[in-house]
Amino acid sequence: MTTSTAPTPPTPPAGSTAYELAQVNIARLKAPLDSPVLKGFVDGLDPVNAAADASDGFVWRLQSDSGNATDVPVFGDEWLIVNLSVWRDVEALTTFMYQGLHRELLARRREWFDRLEEAVTALWWVPSGHRPTVAEAEARLLHLREHGPTGHAFTLRTAFPAGAFEPAGAGEPAGA
Hey, which bits of the chain come out as E strands? Predict the structure, then answer.
């Protein structure tokens, strides 16, 4: 009988950090992606993704063959879209979010997305080199919704420092 263990993330190169910041946000579309209602959002996807890819501190983002993640299922709901990425730290993510084209599109989000009452964004630390899955991101969002900000899943307003805890594997709370 063969047993397998979770792969060990690569050792970070000298001068790099042991952790990176994962972020997920979801949004419920007001209309189909190919509708005139969402034209401004869809037209902005490639330029915003290119800006993210070129940003200082950007590490990785989820994307399908389309080059974005709008066709990646999340929570089994065809009206939800997901953005999942990894950044060097909270400062790098915040800097990207609130400048340039991303800031402009963020200001228009109510045109394209329904307002959801529950948390739609979660952050968590991952070992350097780890690329989170949608299932892991869903688990982090659910954890945040149930427990509020903790070292397992938090928000920009209530962030936790890297290394203050051991990141849990596969989206499960530590000790689970």
Answer: 19-29, 58-61, 80-87, 113-114, 121-127
